[in-house]
Amino acid sequence: MSRSPSSPAGPSQRVLRVGELIRRNLSEILAQGGLHDPDLDGVPITVGEVRVSADLRVATAYVLPLGGANRDGILAALRRSKPEIRHQIGRGLTLRHVPDLRFEIDETFDRIEATRRMFADERVRRDIDAAPSETRPSDESGDAAE
């Protein structure tokens, strides 16, 4: 019995393992600074995650320059350098074919900060503080919790 590539269980262990290997190799390549694009020279870039398609043909790297500055410029430079990066990653993998690389800005830190700001809002704090007493279920004896 074969599993469909889009199974609801999520990515396979192999897909996750390949994504992590690509992430590590990409991080090393960017940290070494050996790329021939001057826009990437000396710019620390965080590789938060690499998601690989089920067929291992496409790998999307979620990256963020340190401090979040010049996101669009860094993204454009990475896309220009894709053939060179892909070649270097291929040397560190034992796959028959190196996945096509795509680069996207990692929005995780922005979402975390937006969530923090939301929870710091006085109206949200008031609702959070009030919620437990309103949603507390009654106990077995029939007395309502107050």
From TrEMBL:
Primary localization: cytoplasm
Coiled coil regions in record: none
Cytoplasm among keywords: yes
Short name of any one Pfam family annotated for the protein: RBFA
Keyword Cytoplasm annotated: yes
Record-linked PROSITE patterns: RBFA
This protein's UniProt keywords: Cytoplasm, Ribosome biogenesis
Region Disordered, residue ranges: 124-146
Cellular localisation: Cytoplasm
Role this protein plays: One of several proteins that assist in the late maturation steps of the functional core of the 30S ribosomal subunit. Associates with free 30S ribosomal subunits (but not with 30S subunits that are part of 70S ribosomes or polysomes). Required for efficient processing of 16S rRNA. May interact with the 5'-terminal helix region of 16S rRNA.
Assembly and interaction partners: Monomer. Binds 30S ribosomal subunits, but not 50S ribosomal subunits or 70S ribosomes.
Family named by the database record: Belongs to the RbfA family.
HAMAP family listed in its UniProt record: RbfA
Name the record gives this protein: Ribosome-binding factor A
Gene: rbfA
